[in-house]
Amino acid sequence: MAIRGDAAGPALALPTDPEPEMGAAAPRLDPARARMRKLPDPKPLTRHGPARVIAMCNQKGGVGKTTSAINLGAALVEYGRKVLLIDLDPQGALSVGLGVPAQNLDRTIYNALMERRTSLRDVRVATDIPGLDLVPSNIDLSAAEVQLVSEVAREQTLLRVLADVREEYDYVLIDCQPSLGLLTVNALTAAQGVVIPLECEFFSLRGVALLVDTIEKVKERLNPDLEISGILATMYDARTVHCREVFSRVVEAFGDTVFRTVIQRTVRFPETTVAGQPITTWAPTSTGASAYRDLAKEVLAL
């Protein structure tokens, strides 16, 4: 994908009028359904690693980052991949979503980042899903944002600690906090790809430009290998004109960078959080589970 200032292609531009008048101009057909396509099942692996690192990133909260990290990871495991999830949010939602009581743990991602003698191997935990491991987080991580400021090569701290485990996994998914602070910059510096979950409403669309600017700066100054893997439309409801128009605007602005898979709004996702399981195991035949399996196929095809 080309981002602004990248010599590989033209700059991306958001619509100049992000809030059109609703009603008569609304598309009659579901634009998300029109873009769907069936992908073949991925081929099995003969060996694992080194991992491709993907940051799940959006500075706006409540857009489905954590839900997408959990369920994409679980879907990749179903296709024979080994996956490590990293909770890089002091709120610890990723840990809670997998039923891990991170608030009671003595060591978390904070210790791996701030203590030279602590590695990711020391703090990772196995989940109930074979092949899916987690590096948990809790409120201790909030101190790292301040403490990292005085560190040498502070933006590359996560990249350094990831080196110990990358050969053991096929994918590392980093659930970023809803901000563009130093922890998120660490995730972008360590990643090869960025998945941007985007709620289908106009305020979310407006915030993407700021995130793309941040990704550009990290690419230029810290991580030339960084690319946007795709924009993932979440909380989509084809019954509303608003969702359909926002989705159409996202595709108009970003083209093929938008994943063809769309995550529909459903009550199943809150249920999985309470259960501490991915939707692929909690409701394996649901539309949500099918959507994340399709997303996993798209990610594997990149």
Automatic annotation (TrEMBL):
<feature type="domain" description="AAA">
    <location>
        <begin position="52"/>
        <end position="228"/>
    </location>
</feature>
<dbReference type="InterPro" id="IPR027417">
    <property type="entry name" value="P-loop_NTPase"/>
</dbReference>
<feature type="region of interest" description="Disordered">
    <location>
        <begin position="1"/>
        <end position="48"/>
    </location>
</feature>
<dbReference type="InterPro" id="IPR025669">
    <property type="entry name" value="AAA_dom"/>
</dbReference>
<feature type="compositionally biased region" description="Basic and acidic residues">
    <location>
        <begin position="30"/>
        <end position="41"/>
    </location>
</feature>
<comment type="similarity">
    <text>Belongs to the ParA family.</text>
</comment>
<dbReference type="InterPro" id="IPR050678">
    <property type="entry name" value="DNA_Partitioning_ATPase"/>
</dbReference>
<protein>
    <submittedName>
        <fullName>Chromosome partitioning protein</fullName>
    </submittedName>
</protein>
<comment type="function">
    <text>May play a role in septum formation.</text>
</comment>
<dbReference type="Pfam" id="PF13614">
    <property type="entry name" value="AAA_31"/>
</dbReference>
